[in-house]
Design goal:
The chain contains 17 helices and twelve strands. The chain is α/β, with parallel strands linked by helices and 363 residues long. The longest helix is centred in the last third of the chain and has 13 residues. The protein starts with a helix and ends with a strand.
Length: 363
């Protein structure tokens, strides 16, 4: 069984996917590559001397069956580079992960309709709303949203996908023994239990250390036909993802935002350099030359019979969140009536409360 040799390779922290790929391509068989002799390694040009020494040192300490069983006992699925099911788009990048560990139903996701959404961890409310608006336009289609399960744009992208009956894939920068950040634990659970899949190239015991996040980003963009950048400062991980997108020959798209927001400075830099501007889901479809049909319609879109109070509140809130005092002053409602109306509208999913006791429109 060849899978255990792929897993054994990936359990060595001191080597990387490039090293494994070089050996696999040279020998054409992962078991033979793992059991290579020092003399045979000398025949392969361009191998890092340091990584060769590390591999030879740690390989002989590995119990192959044990490291494989530790993955299986955790309920983790394994997808190797030589598997016919390996995602085609990811296989085409210059440095594809040799092993993918995943939880959830990866193959319920349409890997031929994948779009990455990336952006700032400290995204503004407006930035999050813009991403939600774009993803809302994909509602009930077979598009798969890919992101990194981080706070900010990543998290809102996954949540918006789930809210709109879309599948979503979260790529993490650690093994499955860790869930980072803790604020995304509910997302991990939803993805594992039917909303899509969580995947990583890292053996379960590997921690989320700094250099692994850019490595993770190449998988997010590599899985995808295009990347949408929500918000990005000039120096940010999102710009790393943008550059990876271009290096991988994929479509780079950006959502514009307020020009006085530091998190949009990177966006406008990318737009000036030729990235496609998107403000709706239709813009994404046009950029990728996709024609998408709705796959389901499980929610009524009937919006008739809104009360006068509802319509008044809709008009006052408009596109900017409003505070309770502002709403009361402009509607003329007493405190009890306004509180009751706002609570019912929240329950019905028409508005939501944001920071600072302010309300914004959802639908």
């Amino acid at each position: 069984m060849n899978t255990k040799y792929w897993v054994a390779f990936s359990s060595i922290e001191e080597i990387d996917s490039v090293f494994i790929q070089r050996l696999y391509n040279y020998f054409g068989d992962i078991e033979r590559a793992f059991n290579v002799s020092p003399k045979e390694l000398e025949q392969i040009e361009g191998l890092s001397v340091t990584k060769v020494k590390s591999f030879m040192l740690y390989r002989d300490k590995i119990n192959i069956d044990k490291v494989f069983n530790e993955v299986e006992n955790r309920g983790i699925n394994i997808l190797t580079f030589d598997d016919k099911r390996y995602p085609y788009m990811l296989s085409q990048i210059s440095n594809p992960p040799m092993v993918l560990y995943y939880k959830g139903d990866l193959f319920s996701c349409n890997l031929d309709r994948t779009v990455a959404f990336v952006g700032s961890r400290k995204a503004s409310t407006a930035g999050k709303d813009s991403v939600k608006r774009v993803i809302n336009d994909f509602k009930n289609t077979d598009i798969t949203v890919v992101s990194g399960l981080a706070e900010g744009i990543d998290a809102i992208s996954h949540r918006s996908a789930i809210d709109n009956n879309l599948k979503t894939i979260g790529v993490i920068a650690s093994g499955f023994d860790f869930e980072y950040p803790s604020s995304s634990r509910d997302l991990y659970k939803m993805l594992r239990e039917g909303a899509g899949a969580v995947l990583t190239e890292y053996y379960p015991t590997f921690k989320a250390i700094k250099f692994r996040f850019p490595q993770r980003n190449r998988i997010v963009t590599g899985l995808s036909y295009g990347t949408v950048v929500g918000e990005a400062a000039i120096k940010s991980g999102a710009l790393i993802s943008a550059n990876l997108t271009l290096e991988q020959g994929r479509e780079l798209m950006c959502i514009p935002g307020a020009i006085n927001n530091k998190n949009t400075e990177g966006i406008y830099k990318l737009l000036k350099s030729g990235a496609t501007m998107v403000t709706t889901g239709e813009d994404v479809l046009n950029a990728l030359n996709w024609q998408i049909e709705k796959t389901a319609n499980t929610e009524s879109t009937n919006t008739q019979n809104f009360s006068e109070q509802y319509l008044l509140i809709f008009d006052i809130i408009g596109i900017e969140p409003k505070g309770f005092d502002e709403l009361q002053a402009e509607t003329g409602m007493d405190t009890e009536e306004l509180l009751t109306t706002l609570t019912i509208m929240e329950v019905e999913g028409l508005i939501e409360q944001t920071e600072g006791d302010r309300y914004k429109l959802i639908k």
